[in-house]
Each structure stands twice: as C-alpha cells, then as structure tokens.
Amino acid sequence: MPSRPDAITLETPCDVTVLPGFEEGHVSVQDEAAQLSAVLLGPVLAPRPGAHVLDACCAPGGKTAHLLEQFDINLTAIDSDNQRLARVEDTLSRLGVEAVLEHADATERDWWSGTPFDAILLDAPCSGTGVIRRHPDIKKLRRKDDIRPLAKLQRQLLDNLWPMLREGGTLLYATCSVLPEENGEQIEAFLARTPDAHITTPNDVAWGINSGAGRQLFPAQNSHDGFFLCQTRKAICLGAS
C-alpha cells in the first residue's frame, strides 16, 4: 500500500514519548491502514466547512484526531468506555484540537440531539484479527464463539446510527478485522435491509481488495494491519412534484 502523504515510517521503533515534537502535538502514531478513514472521508468533508460529523466508538482517538487535523468540521465523538474516552481527551488536548466528547452507547439514542450528521465514522468493535502481526497471541485468545456476539453488536450499531445520518450523508464503516462475518457479509446484510443505503467505496485505489461492498486489507509485514473499510451514502428522497 502506498504511504499516506502526511505519514512517515520510522526506521527504528521507539517509545512515542521520545519522538521529536510528540509532546508538542506535532506528530501522532497511527497504523497506516487506519489512516485511510480520513482519506476516504476527505472528498466528503473537505468541500463542507463546518460539517456536522459523528465519530462513533471513538476511543482511543487516533481517527478522531486525524479528522480534526485534516478538516474544518464540528465533530462529536462518543464511546461507552469512560476510561478510554479520557484517552481521547488527552490526545485532543496534546494536539490542540477540539471535539464534543460524550460518554455514550452508540446502540442507543438518548445522547443524540436530533440534528442529523453530515458524515458518520463507525469504527466498530470487532475481533481485532487484523492486528495479528503485532499481537500474534490473538490466535489463542480469540474464540469462534466470540464472533457471533460481535457481529450482532455491529449490526445494532449500523441500524441505530443510520437514521442519524442526513439524506445525502456518508457513513464509513471500519473494522480492524479480516473476518467476512464482520466485514463484507455484515455490509451485504445491512444493504439488504436498508434500501436507502448506496455503496460509494472507491474501486480505483491502490490498496486492499474488493470484499463485498468494501475494501479489505490484510496484515502486511513491516507495513499495515488488517483493516476493512466500506463507504455508504444515504439516498436523497425527492418530494412529489
């Protein structure tokens, strides 16, 4: 996968706190595949200064910060884990960017003001099988029985968040998984029950492979994690003439 234009790769690994400029907010550490979330949302957000954006399941905040650094947006970031949400707050403070942070469950709507979002990033909880190159112990820790409840949660998140998206808005679904049940099959089922969802995932890109309606990246040695991305657009309903 080509390197991201705003990213560098260190020749030698080191503790993030010793990176020149880290404490001053000049650099952040993020997997190369994860950075594609901002790349895909760029054509949607760049032409819309002040866009109303939701980052669901946002902790630990790498993608949250990347979006805020790249685009002029009003971002709400939610997570159900208060301790992990505190990490997001620390990251945004270090970088000097701001978002509305909410301790909230993205399968519920009691936190939502009712104002539709122009774009939603759903970085869904998943099996984490895509990070196996960095955490090989996941082969022993993850069980087959773990996948069904995760897929159910992902389905609940998609169905709950979709009505919060404005007509013509974009939802980007992402996981750090390589399993079809959480990725291509999950999206195909979502499309079957969501008639106003239309795929806008680009095919003319130099990364990943087609996986149903999305793009799947597999772990690459000395490069990126496994990752899945799928972009959908909500149809605009035309009134009767």
UniProtKB/TrEMBL annotation:
The keyword Lipid metabolism does not apply. Residues 1-235 form the SAM-dependent MTase RsmB/NOP-type domain. The keyword Transferase applies. It comes from the Bacteria. It is found in: Cytoplasm. It catalyses: cytidine(967) in 16S rRNA + S-adenosyl-L-methionine = 5-methylcytidine(967) in 16S rRNA + S-adenosyl-L-homocysteine + H(+). Its EC number is 2.1.1.176. GO terms for biological process: rRNA base methylation. The active site is at C176 (nucleophile). GO terms for molecular function: RNA binding; rRNA (cytosine-C5-)-methyltransferase activity. One of its GO terms (cellular component) is cytosol. Pfam families: Methyltr_RsmB-F. S-adenosyl-L-methionine binds at C57, C58, A59, P60, G61, G62, K63, D79, D105, D123. Keywords: Cytoplasm, Methyltransferase, RNA-binding, rRNA processing, S-adenosyl-L-methionine, Transferase. Its main location: cytoplasm. Belongs to the class I-like SAM-binding methyltransferase superfamily. RsmB/NOP family. Specifically methylates the cytosine at position 967 (m5C967) of 16S rRNA. This is 16S rRNA (cytosine(967)-C(5))-methyltransferase. It comes from Vreelandella sulfidaeris.
